[in-house]
Amino acid sequence: MEIYLIRHGKTPANEKHLYCGRTDVPLSEQGISEAKSICYPLQPRFVYVSPMLRARQTAALLFPQAEQMIVEGLQEMDFGAFEGRSAEEMREDADYQKWVDSKCLLPCPDGEDIAGFAERIRQALYPLVQQAIAAREKELVIVSHGGSIMAAMASYARPAQEYFHWGAANCGGYRAHIREEDWEKSPAFEQWESLEATKENAEA
């Protein structure tokens, strides 16, 4: 089975380089235009999406024929006190500098840490794959967030790489192959590749 992990389109927060996890922002005009121009060679019946507006909007633009299935737990990492702020803005913020110095492994004040966030993503993703296997689906399409994709790939991709290795562009992501018979006891993405979308209506 193939699993498609797709990041939402560009938002105003992305354009301003702001930390944006729990804040429910929409796509920007550029994000909408770019998503409309992208065509993935997929015709899924269902698309599994984060509850966040930016993910739902992206799924509707990329796969308008598919029914959206909201999955609690696929939301982006909660950046707590860093939400809505840029790295430049927080250069003198002691809590932010402490977090950066820890290679972002400490919890964000009033937010999540990467370890707990990754566990949340695993708890959301693992049963989705099980359900798709039981239903004999050939593909599982998920539209979520950059951090959610990084957490999933760091957890399951082989050979293993650290969390920040797995960054994805807006509307980009990864296609991963799993062995259905091995997933329950030894969940892993045995093969994977970066998604390459074709662009249509590039002037849109």
How would you characterize the overall build of this protein?
The protein is an alpha/beta fold. It has a single domain, classed as Rossmann fold (3-Layer(aba) Sandwich). 31% of the residues lie in helices and 16% in strands. The protein contains 6 helices and 8 strands; from the N terminus they run βααββαβααβαβββ. The protein has helices spanning 12-15, 29-37, 53-62, 94-101, 114-134, 146-156, and strands at 2-7, 38-39, 46-49, 67-70, 139-144, 173-177, 191-194, 198-199. The strands form 2 sheets. It has a 6-stranded mixed sheet with strand order 4-3-5-1-6-7. A two-stranded antiparallel sheet has the order 2-8. Strand 3 (46-49), helix 3 (53-62) and strand 4 (67-70) form a beta-alpha-beta unit. Helix 5 (114-134) crosses helix 6.
Tell me the CATH topology: Rossmann fold
Number of helices: 6
Please trace the helix and strand order, writing H or E for each element.
EHHEEHEHHEHEEE
Give the termini separation: 33 Å
The total strand number stands at: 8
| Integer tally of domains | 1
Beta-strand content: 15-25%
Which sequence of strands runs across the widest sheet? 4-3-5-1-6-7
Superfamily (CATH H level) name: Phosphoglycerate mutase-like
The global form is globular
Alpha-beta classification: alpha/beta
Low-confidence stretches: none
Q: Output the CATH class name.
A: Alpha Beta
Our Rg estimate from Cα atoms comes to 17 Å
Q: What profile does the largest beta sheet have?
A: 6 strands, mixed
What percent of the residues sit in helical stretches (DSSP H or I)? 25-40%
Average pLDDT taken over every residue:
95
Instruction: Please give the CATH architecture.
Output: 3-Layer(aba) Sandwich
